[in-house]
Amino acid sequence: MAPAGINMQDVLARVQEVPFQPLADAHLLDATRPSEAPAEEFRSLRTRLNHLQSLSPIHNVVVTSPSPAEGKSFTAVNLALAEAQLSGNLTLLADFDFRRPIVHSMFQVDRSPGITDYLMGKAELHQIIKKVAGTNLYIMPAGEAVLNPLELLNLQEVNNLFNILPTVFNWVILDTPPLLFAADASLLSTLCHGTILVVRIGTTTIDSVTRAMQSLCENNVLGISVNGARRGELYSKYTYYHSYYYAAENARAEELQAEAAAEAENKQE
Fold it and tell me: Are 85 and 169 members of one domain?
């Protein structure tokens, strides 16, 4: 149940809708090209996450990494987009990286009002949520810059927020700071149902993964997402079968169209 005085259905009815116009180099999933290999990988991650949800009530998920530049934001945003592609699967992408927020830039929306504004009492809940037009995706930007992000995250309002949001959103995906550079993600992981750790091939070291896992106390870690693999390494076999499958599918579609056209001609004669 949502806390007294807050009706999330009313909140959603009042949120602003924004067009889906991602930054050109943001590398977001394109719903018009679902057969691309990266999209398939995020759908696979989505399937595994949804399976975990079928086993236990998981709705709030922290996405983080040991260090910067390992792809945590890329993973959080595209996982949220993949979830939002499912019918009726309302998904919220929340930028809790108050130190170096990027979600607002990727979707080309204003950074403020956002989460920090809400926590400081400068904005209402419906003012900090944006609905991406034509999708089941909602975004919550970080808000104005603050000097004390960790103090804000310790407010009771943060815990209240995580209790409210799952009453309407099936998934709340949080982009958070790297674990080894700030305590924010470690704190947020204790308030959420699970954590996904993002690592990058050729960049992330075993030592940093070990220290990151220790900082999480290995609690609620749902899994590790590996980022930065070369296409040849990751998709060599996959691409062959993927291309074969879609080539066969397209050929069958052409056959059916030809049969339908021939049948229409016979009827006219």
Answer: yes
Number of domains in the chain: 2
63 phi and psi, to 5 degrees?
-115, 120
2 membership: H or E segment, kind and range: none
Q: Does the pTM of the predicted model rise above 0.85?
A: no
Same domain, 221 and 239: no
Domain extent, residue 45, equals: 8-229
Residue 1 lies in a domain: no
Could you give the angle at which helices 72-84 and 37-55 cross, rounded to 10 degrees?
A: 70
User: What CATH number does the domain containing 149 carry?
Assistant: 3.40.50.300
Q: For residues 113 and 218, state if they share a domain.
A: yes
Same domain, 30 and 64: yes
Is the Cα dihedral 262, 266, 268, 269 positive or negative?
positive
Cα–Cα distance for residue pair 36/49, rounded to 1 Å: 20
Mean pLDDT of 262-266: 59
Smallest Cα–Cα separation from 137: which of 11, 17, 34?
Answer: 17
> ω before 113 within 30° of 0 (cis)?
yes
Give strand ranges (E) for the chain: 16-18, 60-64, 91-95, 130-132, 137-140, 171-175, 194-200, 221-227
Residues 3-34: tens digit of each pLDDT: 546 789 999 999 999 999 998 888 888 766 65
How far apart CA 38 and CA 20 sit, in angstroms, is 19
200 and 268 in a single domain? The answer is: no
Dihedral, 212, 99, 26, 95 alpha carbons, nearest 10: 80
76, 149: one domain: yes
Rounded to the nearest 10 degrees, how much is the dihedral formed by the CA atoms of 209, 40, 81, 229? 30
